[in-house]
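Task card 7
Instruction: Convert sequence to structure tokens.
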Amino acid sequence: MYNDPVMVRPQTPHEGGGRRRVPWRMILVGVAILFALGIGIYFYIQSRSASGPQQTTAEEASRIVKEVEKLMLLPEGETPPVATVTDPAKLSDQSFFVNATQGDKVLIYAASQKIILYNPRQNKIINVAVLSSE
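Output:
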């Protein structure tokens, strides 16, 4: 029988037991994917916070409709979407929004073809117009 001790030589990093080399192409592809994803998220967030009116929650919309209903007769049998004016300067080229201020609410009655601009701080109807299909 052989009773000689076995000599073990330490392995260098390039001999299998060390760190594995990562191809540069994989790193570049990963960075490119992360970059594209970041740009996509940025533009999505920008589009959601755009200058136009923003959609409100159903509870807030119901509350706004009840407030406006106290000031004028509203179309029956229709629940309007309610949007909030966030940047009136970008809407000022549209005659309907000339007197709009930040925070005003826009009620859109599509079936009745009416649009109402309401200022909740002053509890005033600022403008009412007929929707056109143009």
